[in-house]
Amino acid sequence: MASGVGLATGPAFASAVQSVCPRLFGLPLSGGRLISRVAKLTMMDVQELSLAGRVAVVTGGSKGIGRATVQLLARLGAKVVINYSKDDAAAAEVVAVVSAAGGEAFSFKANIATVDEAERLLKATLERFKGVDIIVCNAGIWEGAAVEEISEALWDATMDINLKGAWTVCRAAVPILKKQRSGKIILVTSTAGQRGEAGYSNYAASKGGVIAFTKSLASELAEWGINVNAVAPGWVDTDMTEKALGDLEQRKVIAAAIPIGAIARPEDVAGPIAFLCTAWASHITGEILNVNGGAVLCG
């Protein structure tokens, strides 16, 4: 991946900018017009958008929102560690895609529900890239039932991955970020964590915990120059939600209930995550950024 002016003026960077802030230059913009507009940015603007020289760890990075985030951060110049827990082939595919585009990434299999595994992940990151600047806590599971039918195993698994996993990774990363007195931590929560979700009380509770954890960590780490924020997606078209989204007719019903009239793509969530990783978000911390097409407006 090129850095500096080369990264900033190339088509890949222009495309990445459009993904981060699609309304930054006004829509619609064709590729050529966008590149022309980006070329007019001052060098300071370019440096603030670029993630060249940064190292990012993305949990749950082999699929869905995580995969889209990995690819976008790499396009912006970051070196990326793709954490995953099961699918070796999917992780290898993301590494290949990033590498083919000129980026740098490697995958690391770890069950972040345990402190030891999270520490292994950060140790591997330091050994490979000699540092870490960005943590994206995206790993999660989404499975529910009526409250009386939720098994102890399902409850514990949901909390272990969605909430405890965020804590273990942050616990391992924070000493590094404190030492350098800078860093970005972005956690992925959900609208369910804000307003609850019938039939998914375990999931909603875990994501509500992520919101409280985000705000607490932001307050705790602000003096160290570390920004901590979260994004809260609504419906996103991923492997995890495929069954719930159902057939085309069911998707139309769900989309119609969203004010913006569409179910999000993983890339729609990756853009705001990437924005929070840039210098443009240096004065934002403790925020929960809703990325749900206005769904929270519906109560």
Write structural notes for this entry.
It is a single chain. With 299 residues, this protein is an alpha/beta fold. It has a single domain, classed as 3-Layer(aba) Sandwich (Rossmann fold). The chain contains 13 helices and seven strands. It has helices spanning 4-9, 11-20, 31-39, 43-49, 64-75, 88-100, 115-129, 152-180, 192-195, 201-221, 242-245, 248-256, 266-277; strands spanning 55-58, 79-84, 104-109, 134-137, 183-188, 226-233, 288-291. It has a seven-stranded parallel β-sheet, sandwiched between helices. It is globular. Residues 1-9 and 23-31 have low confidence and may be disordered.
**Helix fraction by DSSP (H/I, runs of at least 4):** 40-55%
Total E-strand runs: 7
The major beta sheet can be summarized as:
7 strands, parallel
Q: Briefly note the structural class of the backbone.
A: alpha/beta
How many discrete domains? 1
User: What is the 3D shape?
Assistant: globular
What is the CATH first-level class name? Alpha Beta
**Termini Cα gap:** 44 Å
Strand content: 5-15%
Summed up, the helix count is 13
